[in-house]
Design goal:
Number of strands of chain A: 11
Strand content of chain A: over 45%
Distance between the termini of chain A: 36 Å
Order of helices and strands of chain B: EEEEEEEEEEE
Distance between the termini of chain B: 40 Å
Number of helices of chain B: 0
Largest sheet of chain B: 6 strands, mixed
Oligomer: heterodimer
Radius of gyration of chain A: 14 Å
Number of helices of chain A: 0
Shape of chain A: globular
Helix content of chain A: under 10%
Radius of gyration of chain B: 13 Å
Number of strands of chain B: 11
Shape of chain B: globular
Strand content of chain B: over 45%
Largest interface: A-B, 25 and 22 residues
């Protein structure tokens, strides 16, 4: 499976500011996804990031709040804009790898964000 | 909208016992199913996937799929304290995005 890194691993930010999270993969991948995991909760998909096209956002998530870039097949960024304490979560990127039978998703280590 | 339901936890089993984790899904068209393990403070780790009716075994893990009943389960045989984690069931959508269940927290007692 691919090796995925995220930066920063954690951050504490003040409300009203923005944070950009980077996701780097050691091989070229077509599909990258961004998820959020709020404290004590499961994972919720924010958006799908495909190279060469705009990100596709899930219901409840908008581009103005979570702009995403995907400049190439190994890198993506997620920005959390105008943060509030409700944005305190773990943000995870995942990449898709095709196997013989299906498409598997592997997750990066996550970025733990605390908004004060 | 796909829905994925997992049996409510937390679940505690003694060391050496079989842990049974269950998941139901709403979309009859779903073709494949994934089980992730998430240790506290870590990101989810893919441990099993299944796409055919019946059982799929990998070491101490067995995934079971019943498409007629829209039910998928994960059995962990000879449970070890190191298996203590949250187990997440996930179903891919048409664009291959994953919908996760709420997770079941498993504790294996030594």
């Amino acid at each position: 499976s691919a090796v995925i890194s995220q930066k920063p691993s954690r951050d504490i930010c003040q409300r009203g500011t923005s944070l950009t999270i980077q996701c780097q993969v050691d091989s070229q991948v077509t599909m990258m996804f961004w998820y959020r995991q709020q404290p004590g909760q499961s994972l919720t998909l924010i958006a799908t990031a495909n190279q060469g096209s705009e990100a596709t956002y899930e219901s409840g998530f908008v581009i103005d709040k979570f702009p995403i870039s995907r400049p190439n097949l190994t890198f993506s960024t997620l920005t959390v804009s105008n943060m509030s304490p409700e944005d305190s979560s773990i943000y995870l990127c995942s990449v898709e790898a095709a196997s013989r039978a299906t498409y598997e998703q592997y997750f990066g280590p996550g970025t733990r964000l605390t908004v004060t | 909208q796909k829905e994925v339901e997992q049996n409510s936890g937390p679940l505690s089993v003694p060391e050496g016992a079989i842990a049974s984790l269950n998941c139901t899904y709403s979309d009859r068209g779903s073709q494949s199913f994934f089980w992730y393990r998430q240790y506290s403070g870590k990101s989810p780790e893919l441990i099993m996937f299944i796409y055919s009716n019946g059982d799929k075994e990998d070491g101490r893990f067995t995934a079971q799929l019943n498409k007629a009943s829209q039910y998928v389960s994960l059995l962990i045989r000879d449970s070890q304290p190191s298996d203590s984690a949250t187990y997440l069931c996930a179903v891919p959508g048409s664009a291959r995005q994953l919908t996760f269940g709420s997770g079941t927290q498993l504790t294996v007692l030594p």
